[in-house]
Amino acid sequence: MSGKIPEVDLEAWHRASDAERALIAAELDAALRDTGMFLASGHGVPQAVIDDFRATARRFFALPKKVKSQYAIEAAYDGGWLEMHPPGGVGVPVSEGEQAPSAPDLHESFYAGPGHRTGDERRDRFNYPANRWPVELPELRAAAEAYTSHMVRVVEAVNEVLAVTLGLPEGFFTSRARKATWTQNASWYPSYSSIGEVARGQFRNGPHTDLGTVTLLSRQQGVGGLQAWNEEQGWFPPPYGPDSLVVNLGDLMEQWTDGRWRALKHRVLPPSPAAPDEELLSLVFFFETDPDTLIEPLAAPVGGGRGLSPAYARRSVLEKLGVSPDSIPGAEA
Asked: Within a domain: residue 94?
């Protein structure tokens, strides 16, 4: 069935026979060609770890603006606090075919990344920017690090499933992600009653695709919640599993599979007067790969045959964020 969003039990996958894996992979492959999204259960992330990070992040967003401003990001690749997308601020590029919004997205975010260091200060600044943990809320770091330790583990399991689904060696993606770039985002979506009237065309998060390979999302269901897109259904609310993570593919994976799989186009609806007190908080783990990995589109029949061009992973992401190519240290430099 076209448009179906499957759920993959990661624990069951590890126990499955080759025949059972083939059935799961066929359903998964169809969904990734069609929409670029599935649900992952059996991931082993304790609910207490998820709840603690979400609650602690909410406490950060409740801090006065003058406190949060001390941690405001200053460049697209920075860690720290992102205000409610003021005009000219740092944001995610608008999806192809979508109009630029006339008003800012209605959310605040906090970003953190891995602590990898290579000894090359310039490369580290672009690839592994320093985290900016608020001294006013030291428990945020502990909660975030506990959560992201699980995300790193889960994304490795997901990458192994994706490789097998493509008929590649299980370690194809994980072997290229030993010191991967990633960003852990906590995004807070304020309520309608606190925002007031929403401008025409304004969203909690406007239509976009993610820039990396794989995104893991712990979301809360709501009236003004997540929507996904595919050609058959247009915009639709994806299934919600309270114990599942959403897995969606980003631009790098679409490029790597030469268009066989689709980067998920998605958005978050604006707060609604139908649920005036609804506020949501999403935990979003954006994963890429090792920064100097050359993303070479896979040849058919594994790849989709679109003839996409190769690109260096981190350079591709930073250029889409508006960073000048001349300023980016790259593997080819």
From this structure: yes
